[in-house]
Fold this protein.
Amino acid sequence: MTKGIDHIVLAVNLLQEASGFWEQLGFKLTPAAGHPWGTENRLVQLNGSFLEVLAIGENAKLTEPGEGVFSFGAFNRDFLLKGEGASMFVMDSKSAEEDHKAYVAAGLPEYSPFSFERIAVSPEGEERQVAFDLTFTTDPLSTELGFFTCHNKFPENFWKAEYQSHPNTVRDLNEVIFVADDPADHHEFLKVFIGERTARLSSLGVEIKTSRGTVKALSPSAFESLYGVEAPANRVGLKLVALVFSAENLESFGKYAEALGGRKSGGFWVVEPERMAGVAVICS
């Protein structure tokens, strides 16, 4: 079953500074919150998907990875050793058990089930329980990028309309763009991870439509030619380099983008990755 894009983890060194740039770009972020193991985050909620701006808390107690054990906190800590950026790509889930079975059947690396819960604060100041089942796997050719599915047990406590209404008028995350030296090397993994049997291969790379948004894996030259942004070369395998949004009022988005040094190229705006937690922001 084809899944939809759930969220992107953006690993940063300083949570408030990094999330401040997203606020300057006209996004409304949730208040700072923490995971039981000590990572801290703020979220950009969109129409069914979200961005997680995440940092390692000062007193974090991170579990180290082991045989068959994936450590969310340690992975992001180690990712940051090479700089900020999109560290993890997450698809939604209706069943962690079924996701695990599918990945095992495809011969992908498997890890122990992982669940957690915490208290979220609503815009009205009410405390509500949220809980998640995470199913991790790994692209053997892209070990510096994390992949997991997320089963949200209490979506009614998680999603809030007030946090989904952004001054820049962005509502949807339309595309997630990866680069790789040879995108075709990764299309089988992406199909299994997403739960899609077909992918469109072209001279530019790979394209897979999900139930919520499109996933693209492009060559570095194709990415630079299309968007005028140089792809990073400091990691191996797939690198998540850009997020493509749609805005109800592109002129409104453009005012925020221009203030952050963004530029208009044809029918879309581009904000360079240096300020946006290591990912290029593209909006049309």
Observations:
- The longest strand covers residues 127-137.
